[in-house]
């Protein structure tokens, strides 16, 4: 009897240890990203640190610990980022196949009493982008109405650093005043066109049977006026998932802002994404996997920015990740 009881206890202990190890393994792998070459990845900034995750928001992994990262950009499988230390911006990079190894590229020293301070960006940061495929651009010290006052170009081949103009840098998915001024002229491309009735613009689509389909119905959401001014421009982008995202931008004092919507190509299930789409401050892209539209939006109830997508035929709003200060796709 004692022998049987002892064997029973031993068997139970083995099962218990196996379960504990399995649970621990599951927890340990919760932030791992397997086979990054086969997955579509997003890099993002959260509270001064660089993170990486899958496009559906799973597998979130923190890559830095300093809390001082203020800007980054992606090129191929490399992520380039800047860590601010007083008046010195240390530019570094890492490769997604070796996330634990961070390499230094150069250090930029401000010739002013401040560096990367901008009341319009919270947390304060600058921007990073590309002059060309081998030259990284870093812009700092934004002044309202004058753009970035300090922009540096860093040649990745020889690490030479030079001063350049901020408008020579191609930033990721940012709508500038320049594209806004051109957008209305480019809207009529044979398939899509805009029509203005009174003060209102609406978007139409001509299908394969030469039928006009009215896609937008924006006037039910918001009056598109600002201090007596009417809409000044109108544009759209298409998604691989068969949707159209369109916006109406107006000049309003020093800002250009308006409404942003998404709808299916047949005009169904129009959803208001935001009624305060401010040019130059919206961070958005198209998923490489699902082809859905994703955008960083402010959540006023909780005082933070979230990365949001609009999925399926109903364009259901889904939060991919919370507390996202900036994001880019890793291509």
Give your account of this protein's structure.
There is one protein chain. With 331 residues, the protein is mainly beta. It folds into 2 domains: 36-168, Neuraminidase (6 Propeller); 177-282. It has helices at residues 2-28, 177-183; strands spanning 41-46, 49-54, 61-62, 69-75, 78-85, 88-95, 98-109, 127-132, 135-143, 147-155, 161-164, 192-197, 200-206, 212-214, 233-239, 243-252, 255-264, 271-278, 284-286, 293-299, 304-311, 316-322, 326-330. A 4-stranded antiparallel β-sheet has the order 3-2-1-23, with no helix packed on it. The chain has a 4-stranded antiparallel β-sheet with strand order 4-5-6-7, with no helix packed on it. The radius of gyration is 24 Å and the shape is globular. It starts with a helix and ends with a strand. Mean pLDDT is 75; it is low at 5-11, 13-31, 33-37, 117-124 and 173-187.
Based on Cα principal axes, name the global outline: globular
The helical percent reads 10-25%
Strand tally = 23
In the CATH scheme, what's the topology name of the largest domain?
Answer: Neuraminidase
How many domain regions?
2
In CATH terms, the superfamily of the largest domain is: TolB, C-terminal domain
At CATH level 2, the architecture of the largest domain is: 6 Propeller
Alpha-carbon distance between the two ends? 66 Å
The CATH class of the largest domain is Mainly Beta
Q: Biggest sheet: strands, sense, closure?
A: 4 strands, antiparallel
Give Rg in angstroms. 24 Å
Briefly note the structural class of the backbone: mainly beta
N-to-C order of helices and strands = HEEEEEEEEEEEHEEEEEEEEEEEE
Helices, by number, come to 2
Sequence stretches where pLDDT stays below 50 over 5 or more residues: 5-11, 13-31, 33-37, 117-124, 173-187
Arithmetic mean pLDDT: 75
Strand order of the largest sheet: 3-2-1-23
| Beta-strand share of residues | over 45%
């Amino acid at each position: 009897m004692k022998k049987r009881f002892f064997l029973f206890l031993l068997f139970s202990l083995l099962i218990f240890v196996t379960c504990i190890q399995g649970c621990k393994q599951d927890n340990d792998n919760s932030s791992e990203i397997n086979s990054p070459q086969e997955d579509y990845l997003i890099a993002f900034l959260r509270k001064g640190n660089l993170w990486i995750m899958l496009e559906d928001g799973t597998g979130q992994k923190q890559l830095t610990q300093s809390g001082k990262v203020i800007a980054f950009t992606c090129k191929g499988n490399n992520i380039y980022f800047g860590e601010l230390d007083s008046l010195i911006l240390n530019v570094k990079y890492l490769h997604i196949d070796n996330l634990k190894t961070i390499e230094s590229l150069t250090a930029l020293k401000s010739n002013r009493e401040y560096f990367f301070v901008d009341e319009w960006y919270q947390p304060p940061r600058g921007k990073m982008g590309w002059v060309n495929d081998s030259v990284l651009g870093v812009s700092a010290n934004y002044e309202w109405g004058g753009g970035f006052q300090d922009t540096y170009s860093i040649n990745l081949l020889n690490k030479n650093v030079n001063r350049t103009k901020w408008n020579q840098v191609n930033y990721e998915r940012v709508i500038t005043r320049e594209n806004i001024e051109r957008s209305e002229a480019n809207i009529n491309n044979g398939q899509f066109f805009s029509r203005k009735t009174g003060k209102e613009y609406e978007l139409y689509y001509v299908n394969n049977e030469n039928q006009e389909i009215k896609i937008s119905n924006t006037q039910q959401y918001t009056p598109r006026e600002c201090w007596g001014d009417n809409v000044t421009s109108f544009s759209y982008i298409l998604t691989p998932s068969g949707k159209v995202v369109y916006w109406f931008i107006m000049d309003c004092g020093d800002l250009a802002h308006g409404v942003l919507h998404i709808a299916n190509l047949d005009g169904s299930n129009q959803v208001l994404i935001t009624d305060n789409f401010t040019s130059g401050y919206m961070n958005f892209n198209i998923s490489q996997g699902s082809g859905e539209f994703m955008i960083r939006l402010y959540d006023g109830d909780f005082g933070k920015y979230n990365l949001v997508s609009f999925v399926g035929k109903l364009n259901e709003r889904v939060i991919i990740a919370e507390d996202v200060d900036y994001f880019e796709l890793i291509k």
